[in-house]
Design a protein that fits this description.
Layout lengths: L6 H6 L5 H39 L4 H22 L16 H34 L4 H30 L1
């Protein structure tokens, strides 16, 4: 996720105070990149679930309906992640957001990556079960538990950002 610095960026870092500002900007960029990465992982999960719904509908219509509800929840969570407020504040407000705060956001985002990978794995398992014509309801329960955890993490993230605004 790191990128090479331009010559201008290297020169500007020599200015007093600029290095800290630039470090915060890199953390903000990382935050956005991580959330986009989580979103892309979840797009794969959506594809798996859409394919599973098509397959399950041939032998368990109510199961397909439950999966469709889950898919709606997943898409909602994906939008919350993708369009979440990031650790950005205009230059004149920079004192409100400390680097340790941005590190907290980064840790939260890393949790999201881990859970997104779990969701992708479970969605692949679900698709395999659907293709075999096996019962899929236990997998749906596992996926719902993961989405619940994602919602908790998003709430934690939003709470942290609200605290920044109160300073």
């Amino acid at each position: 996720m790191a990128r090479e610095k331009t010559v201008l960026e290297k020169l500007l870092e020599l200015l007093p105070g600029f290095h800290g500002y630039k470090a915060k900007e890199y953390l903000r960029e990382d935050d956005q990149l991580i959330r986009e990465y989580v979103y892309r992982i979840m797009v794969d999960s959506v594809r798996n679930i859409e394919n599973a719904i098509a397959r399950v509908a041939t032998y368990d219509f109510s199961g397909a309906d439950i999966l469709n509800e889950f898919l709606r929840d997943l898409r909602f969570v994906m939008d919350k992640i993708r369009w979440a407020e990031h650790g950005y504040s205009p230059h004149y407000d920079i004192v409100k957001i400390r680097e340790d705060d941005l590190e907290k956001i980064r840790k939260i985002d890393e949790q999201l990556v881990s859970i997104a990978m779990d969701i992708k794995g479970k969605s692949s398992e679900l698709l395999n079960e659907a293709e075999l014509g096996n019962p899929i309801r236990p997998k749906i329960g596992e996926l719902k538990a993961l989405i619940s955890r994602v919602r908790d993490i998003i709430f934690e993230r939003e709470k942290l950002l609200r605290e920044w605004g109160a300073r």
